[in-house]
Structures are given as structure tokens and as C-alpha cells.
Amino acid sequence: MSSIAGKILRVNLTDGSIKHEALSPGLAREFLGGRGLGGKMLSDEIRAGIDPLGKENKIFFVTGPLTGTSAPTGGRYMVVTKSPLNNAIASSNSGGFWGAELKFAGYDMLIVEGRAKEPVYIYIRDNQVEIRPAGKLWGMTTSQVTDALLTEAGDRKARVLNIGPAGENLSRIASVMNDRWRAAGRSGVGAVMGAKNLKAIVVRGSGKVEAAIQERFKEAVSSSLKKIKENGVTGQGLPAYGTAILVNIMNEHGIYPTNNFQLGVFPQAEETSGETLAEKYLKKKDPCFRCPIACGRYCSVDGEEGGGPEYETVWAYGADCGISDLKAIIRANNVCNEMGLDTISAGATIAAAMELYQRGRIRPEELDGAPELTWGNGEAIVEWTRKMGRAEGLGAKLALGSARLCEAYGMPELSMTVKKLELPAYDPRGVFGHGLQYATANRGGCHVRGYMISPEILGSPEKLDRFTLDGKAEWVKIFQDLTAVIDSLGICLFTSFALGAQDYTDLYNAATGENFSVDELLACGDRIFNNERLFNLAEGYTAKDDTLPKRLLEDPMPDGPSKGYVHPLDKMLPKYYEIRGWSADGVPTAPKRQALRL
Amino acid sequence: MEVTVKLFATLRNGRFKTETRCYAPGTTVQQIAEDLKIPLAELSLTLLNGQAALPEQVLTEGDTLALFPPVGGG
Ligand code: SF4
Question: Is the pTM above the cut of 0.95?
């Protein structure tokens, strides 16, 4: 089949219908695939204002034109839906093998609509598609359901995507898991599956993806492979230490959020670093489909094994909760994956709960005898993650995410979120462009929609002063647009440490037979980003939601190398809106929409 | 003068994690890297007391120098 298979699989769980539809080539050309195409089709197919956990919401599982090809890291897919966490557009990216397998089965995307009366799972083997009962699977954890379905399929090569108990319990921070510990983590996408009574999707495909211009594609692949191998980050740092290599770096810059962003330096960071992880607990690397980088970790603690932890997870369960016990962090990560929760949001919500406890808002008697929510308590992160997944007692409140939790306890300012999505592991008071990107990312507080840490901290592709405002709005826009492209192509964002816009253009053109210039491809990124913005505006979002938690705007960083700084967001936003072609209140102008054909 | 030198990731191989080391006054970042036999090409990030530093920057008593190879993640 071609790199764009041209086929959509649409399953309606209310009436049980299964349809094979043609993909519009025009839309694919304008929105590429993955995040872009899914976002456009979601915007077109659902009405503004619907309940994200109601049967009117739809959930899209979308590959890109490079998914399933031999492009390096070409195994990624996107889960696109309306977020039950914040009503914004959700697009959660995941690796592993499931996305490539969906393409091998012949589909660019699967759209699931409606709601089943009883728990079900979807079984796909090429053209054979069935909705099967999943009553016996309900309540199972991620690895249990994966094992059960692989046995039932009688095919160890099938790929399983599923939700854990958290998604069933409609946790607003539930993830969609695939291949056991790969996660489409953010925005609560797992709860949308739970609300549809959809426990899992098993897929097996026998097709083969072929590039439109095979010789050129081979050249583009080998040129990008060479760059990835020779680059210090993708060729050495990430393979050797995984993403947790960043722990010490961010800490040394004083932007490593500690105790729910009360501090910017964690004195015990070294004990939880990628270096320590590699030395003590790493069993093997765990790469995704066709990935030469292999940042994925597989760790073992006291006989307990599992995938991860990633940098963000090490931070959320570590410094953010004041925890230096790496064993406890690894165990919490495993429980988090088994429950099907987003590790960033789960860890960060426990951190918020710890601050509510510190300030006497959560009272000891509410803990029901579970470990105390005190900074540094390793037992607490493990047990409270389990309680969140099972929606037990106070755990049920935590499972709604830190915004709802802190609101319920009368201290909304303690929730370190943007648009209700928990912020990741970089304090923007010491990295200004990254803060602008948090404030403007369409899904809320997210780092991977324009990873400004690259230029502002890591010096890639060039080193920017982290405290200057000059040029930051332009950088953020370009990074956001390029990221939208990468997220839509079906490859991993981490390739961007080694590859540039020209490489992506070459891969895309050879795979699809298109003849885009770099600027045309980036214009697709701009279009994708603006389409998401329009989705959010229709849901009632306004410029005042492009903000950061009060603590980061008003309280100077108390310690370390970023001491004394607050984030100067109000000085950055007007310029950003201007170069985006938006009005002063953050709305894409008519000429801008016309230029993008939106 | 005494300065604290911190090394990270692959730069630790065959060297150390953190050491307090003695250098003559006026020693630069680059000279310390040379002393540790770290080729400049392997050095991606250099922090002097938490702020980005240039190779020619001079250290003073009590400074902390952190050296990193190319790293990334997310
Ligand atoms: S770099 Fe890491 S996350 Fe990306 S595809 Fe490779 S193993 Fe997966």
C-alpha cells in the first residue's frame, strides 16, 4: 500500500456499524496526517460544546504518512479527541508498535464513535473487524489485559492498545496505553475510551507500506539515519541514559521544579538522575518501531520489571514530590502504567495534594490510613497512584487532576497547570520562551508542542539566552509549527535533535510523491496549529486562558541559578499574537484564516 | 584557588562526578577542560555557577563549573 493508505476505518459502538471509508486526498495534503488530519476531521465532525465523555464525542487513532515506513522512528500515531480534562483539543502521541500495525492492516486511521452498552474491545485483522465483548477484561490492569488479549487472539504478534482501571473510572488524567508501557498520556484521552465502554483495540496487519518514490525515499532515510547516528544527543546521550539524562541539567540551571514548583533546585537530583538509573536499575533499552535512538528504558527494581521511567516521570514522582528514592519512583511509574494514568499529571497531582496537605487543607483523617502526603514519602506516591487508578476514597478526587483537586480545596492557585493540564518538568521562570510555549500550546501546559528547552538550555540548533525576550515569540512560533508537522508525519519528535525541516520535507515528499518546499510544509504546521486554536476558541477559550500559574508570574524564584526571576508572559504574548497573525485578543484574523484556507 | 568541577553523562567515564580542584588564579573554562582532557567538541554545555559560560571565561575562588556533553530529551 502507499504511505497514505487512503482508507479510514469507522466503528460506531452505539449501533455496532463498521465502515470502510476513503480518505480525502485534499485534506491529507493540507493536514498531512496524525495530529493535523485527526484535528481537522474532529473539528469538522463534532459540534462545539458537546460532553467529551458523552456519546457524541469521537476518538481518532491516526497514523501519519511515515508511520509504518522505514523512516527512522516511523511507528508513531496520535490519539485525537475532545479532552475530558479541559474541553480543548486533545492530541496525544505514542510510539511502540501499535500505530505501525494499524497502517499494516491497511488504515490511515480508526475513528470510534458512540457508546457501547457493555464493555467491548475492537479486533482488527486487516479487513476483518469485529466488536467483541470485554466484560471479563473490565477492571484489569494494562499488562493483564494485554496478556489476556494476546492469548485470546492466539497470535503473539498482534498489538494491543488499551485503557487501565483509570480510564474505566473516567479519571480525567487517564492515558491510552499500547504495547504495555507506551502511552498516549496527556489530556485524559483514556477516559474517552472508558466512557465509550471500549477497553482495548487489538490490531494485526499483513500489508506493507511502500514509498511513492522509492529510490529517493531510501536516500532520504539513509541520510537521516546517518545524521541521527552522528548527532551527540540522538547517537549517544539518549541511547545511553534515556530522557532522564536531563535531570541534572535542569537542576543545574535551577529550573527543576521541586515540591510543586515551590523551589527550582532539588538537592538530591543526582540520586534520581539518568546516570544513576543507568548505573543501578537499567536492564535494557526498549526502542519503539524502527527506532535507532532507543531512548526507551526497561528497568528492574527488586525483581519488579517494566518500561520507563522517562525524565518527566522521574521528575513528577521525584523532585516535584520531594522524593529522592529512585526505587519508589520506578515502582510508582509501573503502577501508573498498570492503572493507565498519565505519569506527568498523576505525579504532579500528588505533588499538589502534598502542598494541600502541607498547608492543612487536606486533613490527616481524609487519608483513610494510606501513607501520609508528606514531601519525600516514597510509599505515598506508589499507593496514591494505585488509589487514583481505582478511584478509592480521596484517590478519586486526585484522579480528576490537580486543577479540580485544588479548586475543591479552595486553593486553585496551587494547581501548577495551564488550561488544567499539569505542567511538565521545567520551571518557566528560568526559561522564558518555554513559558510562552506553555501558555500557548493548544492542549494546555505541555512541553512537546514547541520544545524551547532545545535552544534556550541545550543549545540546539543554536544557543539562546534563556532570560531574554528578543526573538522568542518568533522561535516559539517556528518550533510549534515544525512540531505540528513532525506530530503529523508519524515519527518521533526526538529526531528533531538531529534533523531539520529540510530532512522532514525530503522524507515526506519521497514517501507521498508530493513536491512540497520547506516553507509549504511549515505552512501545513501553521494551518494545523491554527485549526486547533479555532477548535479551542469555539469551545469558549479566550486569550485570558493563555496564561501561567500565578506562582510563576508573581513569586520570584526563591533559590538557585534562576533566583529572583518571574515569568514575563505579559511582555511576550502581544508579539506572539502579532506574528501568529492573530488579533490582540488571540483570535486568528480573517486574512490569516484565508491564507491558511481555514 | 579552589573550584568545584561537576561532570555529567559520558564525561564521567574515566573521570569523576564532582571534585574540588586547585587551579592557579586566572584559569579559564577552556583550560580546565583541557586539564581534564575533554575535547571541546565533546563539550556542549558549560555552566559557571548555574549560568552559561564561554570557554575564555575566567574562574574565581569558590566557583562551581558544570560540564555536559551533548544531551537532549523531553
Ligand atoms: S526516540 Fe525514544 S520515544 Fe522516540 S521512537 Fe525512539 S525509543 Fe520511542
Answer: yes
